[in-house]
């Protein structure tokens, strides 16, 4: 029997003040990779407010799981069509029954088996998360899956070797040994720092062109 978001919320305890479990990142590589995923997407979508990114944040989805604290959340998850505001954790029954639309796990020696089995099954069967990716900052293993019917099917790399994400409207791939976002045309999405440097270089190039024409650019 299906249950509405309102019925689910009525059955669950107040989760608005539930704190996320603290999970120490496996290594500096993992921390830097997570920060990169967050900062690039936030920069790209800086003019929109209808999404939420969870970084190392717990997802609470059942009364028993809330009481036992027996599941810790994904390294990175994205929820579309929701408010972009700070949250202490993602509490499904406080969020109209919404689960993540996309999840990325950063593999490590201690988590890889769980990420590829237990968590994958949870995201497929309980969360019904549309897309699931995993990436190892250590050996650069990358795989992606999309929900087709009741089960995940592996996302096959496109002609440029990238994994297409319908949720993001972008592709995922490896650039300079990091997991990065790419445009559908295959151009890497810049970090805020890369974007600022590129803009500065364009400005300096334009200034040089103006000077060559005898025009002193305005400061």
Which spans of ≥5 residues are poorly predicted at pLDDT below 50? Answer: none
How many structural domains?
2
What best-fitting shape do the alpha-carbon axes yield? Answer: globular
Average pLDDT figure: 85
Count helical runs. 6
What's the N-to-C terminus distance?
67 Å
Number of strands: 11
**Main sheet makeup:** 6 strands, mixed
Order of helical and strand elements: HHEEHEEEHHEEEEEEH
| CATH class identity of the largest domain | Alpha Beta
Strand content: 15-25%
CATH topology of the largest domain: tt1808, chain A
Amount of helix: 25-40%
Determine the structural class based on helices, strands and strand pairing. Answer: alpha+beta
Query: Could you give the order of strands across the largest sheet?
Result: 1-3-5-6-7-8
Q: Specify Rg, calculated over alpha carbons.
A: 20 Å
CATH architectural designation of the largest domain: Alpha-Beta Complex
Organism: Planktothrix tepida PCC 9214
Protein name: Putative restriction endonuclease domain-containing protein
Pfam families: Uma2
Could you describe the 3D structure shown?
- It is a single chain.
- With 219 residues, the chain is α+β, with helices and mostly antiparallel strands.
- The chain has two domains: 5-188, tt1808, chain A (Alpha-Beta Complex), CATH 3.90.1570.20; 190-219.
- Helices cover 30% and strands 22% of the residues.
- The chain has six helices and eleven strands.
- The strands form three sheets. A six-stranded mixed β-sheet has the order 1-3-5-6-7-8. The protein has a three-stranded antiparallel β-sheet with strand order 9-10-11.
- A hairpin with a 2-residue loop joins strand 7 (142-148) and strand 8 (151-154).
- The longest helix has 21 residues, at 192-212.
- The radius of gyration is 20 Å and the shape is globular.
- The termini are far apart.
- The mean pLDDT is 85.
